[in-house]
Amino acid sequence: MARRDLFASGLEMERSEQISRKETMRESAERISLNKRIHEHGEHFKRMNEDSLMHAPNFVIKPRSHTVWENQCVRLHCTVSGWPDPRVVWYKNNVTIDPLAHPGKFKLQSSYNVHSLEINRCDFDDTAQYRVSAMNSKGELSAFASVVVKRFKGEIDESLPAPRHGPVSEYGITFKTHIVDTFGVSFGREGETMSLGCTVIIYPHLHRYQPEVQWYRDHVLLTESKWSHMHWSGDRATLTLTHLNKEDEGLYTLRVTTKSGYETYSAYVFVRDSDADVEGAPGAPLDVCCLDANKDYIIVSWKQPAVDGGESILGYFVDRCEVGTNHWCQCNDTPIKFARFPVTGLVEGRSYIFRVRAVNKSGMSHPSRVSEPVAAMDPADRARMRGTSAPWTGQIIVTEEEPAEGIVPGRPRELQVTEATKNYVVLSWKPPGEKGLEGVMYYVEKCVSGSDSWQRVNTEIPVRSPRFALFDLAEGKSYNFRVRCCNSAGVGEPSDPTEATTVGDKLDIPSAPSKVVPTRNTDTSVVVSWEASHDAKELVGYYIEASLVGSNVWEPCNNKPVNATRFICHGLMTEETYVLRVRAVNAAGLSQFSEESEPVKVKAAIGGGIPHASPTPPYGISVLECVRDAMVLAWKQPTFIGGADITGYFVDYREVIDGVPGKWHEANIKSVSERAYRVTDLKENKKYQFQVRAANMAGVGIPSLPSDTFLCEEWTIAVPGPPYDLEIREVRSDSLVLLWRAPVYQGRDPVNGFYIDIKEADAPEEAWRGVNTKATEKTFFKIKNLKEAETYVFRVRAQNKAGVGKTSEVTDPVNAVTKPGTTEIVVDVDDDGVISLNFECSDLNADSKFVWSKNYEEITDSTRMTMETKGNMSKAIFNTPGEEDIGIYSCFVTHTDGVSASYTLSEEELKKLLEISHDHKFPIIPLKSELAVELMEKGRVRFWLQAEKISANGKVDYVFNDNLLSQGEKYKMHFDKDTGVIEMIMECLNPEDEGTFTFQLQDGKAKNQSSLVLIGDVFKQLQKESEFQRKEWFRKQGPHFIEYLSYEVTPECCVVLKCKVGNMKKETVALWYKDGRELKADEHLSFAEGVLTLEIAQRGSTADTDDDQVWRAAKISKKDAGIYEVVLKDDRGKDTSTLNLTDQGFKDLMNLVFSVIANSSTPLKITSTDEGIRLYTFVNYYNDLLQVTWHYKDSAIAFSDRVKSGVVGEQLWLQITEPTEKDMGKYAIEFHDGKDGLKRTVDLSGKAFDDAFAEFQRLKAAAIAERNRARVAGGLPDVVTIQEGKALNLTCNISGDPVPEVTWLKNDREITSDEHIILKFESGKFASFTITAVNTSDSGKYSILVKNKYGTESGDFTLEITEGTPDLGVTSYWTDADGNVVFGPNTPKEKMKSSITGTKTKKRKESVTKTPPAEKMEDNKESKNKESGKKKEEKITAAVSVQPKGSDSEQKVAEQPAGTAKDPEPAAETQPENTKK
Fold this sequence. Notes:
This protein is mainly beta. The protein contains 9 helices and 106 strands.
């Protein structure tokens, strides 16, 4: 019972819960429905009032920053208004947050304009700046909030290795690591996938023990990415390169580290270019990265590819893509050659990736690998966001400062040009110093240097970043730039302008490498070394190419630039012979190729084939400084460097515990060039030993002996540490120079001096004595007063305020002996006064170099001195000697037994050298006059000058454009040493004589020169004047023109050419030419009293011959335009006169002709026509080129259909159609002659207008009557011959207004329409005559009579009937000479032979014959369809003979077999103009 009650009560409770849930669900559904209706109502209201409600997003409530503990949850929320509803996106450190990519981590919610971001179980990586962006069609707005995740003290620091779980521990166990089953040198192609793997054996084997496995490329640690995946399977390490690019080429190293040490293995991976889409296209660029990023500006850089496809690369295109999209946008319109490019126009806060494509004449390369994403934002914001990832002890301070409104910002600061190329210039500056200004942006202005005209560059949109790139600047021009700040309050004052900047590439393409030396290595590889490019700036690396000897086909050995000057070229064919070459690359481009190397045969060599040996071990390892966890070591250079320069050193260390040394560990992976190195990650109060290995191009030498055991404890002494790197130079019998470096450990106070100690090499320690009693501040010292042949050692001590510190390591013993052949630096002043230091060395080898130093610091700046080396002599030349050059100069020769020397240039010595330099310069020969030029007879040119004083030994060099001139036909030189006049005469000046003429004088040591520049307009004017005078002189020696050819126009409008001649004789001939063709003279050519004349006329049609042209007087036209020439010649010479009557010359001539025509015009007269009133004038001569203008009441007439003008013969007229009283007034015609012209006027008003108008009315009425009278326009032949039984159809056109009455007559008797003869008059235009079946009774004369109130006209034809003939199936027609149909194929022969009668010679105007009415055609078709029982349709051949009344008229003749009128056969229509033959 109790159980039943319990069950019943439980059931009741469950039922009540169900009812409660249903009610709750119903209420929830109703609430949702109500909210939905409210929302829809609001949406409807917004749509109805869209224009008035649309506004940009606005944050009503911004998200707040939070600081939370680890593993807690945090929620950021905000309220956004705006219409249309904004789209809200959340960002973490400017990267879009995708909840699906991090399931359970982030949760986004949006409800009624309230948006929230929830971060579950925060960890330390969630410390970041979060941004919420709201965007709609009216704009975009962002708000920021920071989240800081703190960790409780005492928790495990993630930077330390994670604790291992389980009973196994590696402490107390010594591991031995072996790397087997390795990968070799590998070759891949872009786009492929490559896996590199090695098997790692660790003994003893411990379960679940995992060593530290790291992969390096070119000594750079690789991390997991989409391009590279690393995997450890317990005994095998694998690196997978998912998509090879040339960036993946390099030396790959696997490093396996245990607590007992590490093991490494390395091999090179080569990546070749993928096949180009277009043959000959270049390879893809590589290593695309972003150097500088700002709010709307990013500099993209890349490296040039090794493969250019056989054509020089024209440039590169940069593409960008916003992160989260797949839309690539090209950033530059034209290709750029510089391997850097500023990308502008970015949207602040958005992230972008970039890629680069190369292009040459053949096409475009594949795009490069995309860059890492970079956000367009202020660097300070980026640094602050990076700061959020600081260790847990750090803090993020979030401050919100309300911007000051209404304040104009100040001047930008520190404006400078950071980069300048021929394509663009990049400016950078700092914002104004004021804080909290509202929305500062910038305007950039430029002006050409030397002017004060400033032009704003970004006129439309100010920039937000303190960086800006300017394009489209003129290469070679100099510009100044300045920047203004602006905000909503206004535009501020400009910054200080920059210095003048010349547009052009500041970075030069590197010089070509040299001394390419290949050596054998293995059966498939060669080692190549070279000498680096000299003075190369921003060098990226080198590309190496190899070619089989004789093939001239070059293949790249590396597709990624190498930074070293030694490289192993793999993948070569065994036993083949190759030559190699190298070129350097920087951002400006690729250098020229080096010279080809000597041929090398690919074959394994003993010892690797390296011609040099590796260095011997360094020695003398000492400690320079020691702190708690690091020690600075120093050592001495190996005694033998292996014949090649040492490229670096490698340091190893090991811990010594209780006198037992441990295993060696690498201190540096990358070699160090200095002989000092800081070893880090040591343990305090532990003892260590060190060893050092030296490396050169032959390889890494054996390690040095282990150093003494050093304790790692922090130095706290007050005095300095020991100096180091002691070096002895300039060893002589009584002196030497000691060099050293200042101690690394300074002590309590800075070092303020050094003391040098000396003793004989075999003397006891007590024999050390000081060289200098007063401390020297320099790091070099010349030790004097040595005993010849004595052996010495030296050491150095540093001091500070606390005292003298530790002594340095003792130098190697040195014997004070001047070696045979020792030379000193010699000072020389040459004949040009150039001061130089010269040093000669006779002990050079192939690798030796002269190293010049000032105060024992190598001279690298070439602005003060220039170094030249030839053979065994080196020279240091002072460019501009001055007080800055005072000092000690030394020269050291490498790869020798310490060959060196020095020279001290003091102030007194410098003054003495400058005086000598001045004395060595030759004095100047004084001149009375500088070089001048003048013209002589015959147009000869004389260059001359006069020296004030010159001896008999003086000499002169005549120079033109740096070329020495000599006496000859062209140049006549004369030097009068008594008067000092020097002259050079030229017969004439030719175009190649344009340039600079110089007279160089020398009299013993004295020199001088004077130059005359004859270029441009000065030279052309002188040459023109010389040539003119020369021609004039020669011209006047024979027959010549006194007055050149000209023209005149006679009153009869004849054009006469004339010229005046002189110095004529009987044999003199005068020839006339037009456009190069000789004119045959007739009576129009004359020669009287020294005057030649020619009357111009156009070519006559009746006087042409095959080869010559005879000219006659006629109207002048454009055909007469041309170049006329007269040639006078005899045995003394000839002269030519030319008159150009083309273009403007012909226009001037015609204007003169027009003036004569205008003056011949008659007064304007008035006449009437049936169309209106006509004004006209006559001229004696009219030319088609004449231009006239008609005026009415002093205004030019605008011609229309009512008012027209024209020319008939010699008459010029103006026609006024349908004149009215409005046309009354003063009319004029204006003749244009290029000057004032001429006007003729007439007054068309009063009686003159009335008389003309009355006459017009009369003529118009007569014309209307003639035009509207009844007419038969055409369509009737004179004679129609037709077979009996055929149907005849004739149609003619009728015209007249009103419509005429039509009457048909047969034999002059009226006929009416019936079934046999059908007469029709349609549309008032077409009159048709049809006989359904012709019989003999129809023969006769037929006429048509038309009449209306204006007149009557008739037309007739004769109908002849012939007997029927069989149907031959073909209809043929014969026509007469005028094309009229005369005979058909069935016309009787006697008919054909007989003459055709009744033909009228009168012809009417042309008219158009219309086709038969459509109703008739339909009747014919129906009649044909009614016929039945016929097996074959009959074809009737009709013979038609037609003689139309006019040759121009058109007609129709329809024929058909005999039949009833109601059922005729289809008519056959014939038009005489389209007769079939």
